[in-house]
Amino acid sequence: xxxxxxxxxxxxxxxxxxxxxxxxxxxxxxxxxxxxxxxxxxxxxxxxxxxxxxxxxxxxxxxxxxxxxxxxxxxxxxxxxxxxx
Length: 85
Hints:
By secondary structure, the protein is mainly α. It has helices at about 5-35, 40-60, 65-85.
C-alpha cells in the first residue's frame, strides 16, 4: 500500500480515470454494435458522423490507438456503402 499522500491520491485518480475510460470504451462498442444492425442506408448515413466522432474522441484520449480508430471508421463506411447493394 502507498505510504505517501501524493501516491494515495495518484491511485485514486488512476481508478477514476480507468472507470471513465472503460465506460467510454464500452459505450462506443455498444454504439458500433447497434450501428451494424441498421439496415437502412439513409439512417446509417445519418448516424455515421456521430459514431465517427465518438471513435475519434477515444483515439484522441488514448483509449484506443489512432490506427484502430481509422480502421473502425473505414470498415463502418464500407459497410454503409454495401447496404444499398
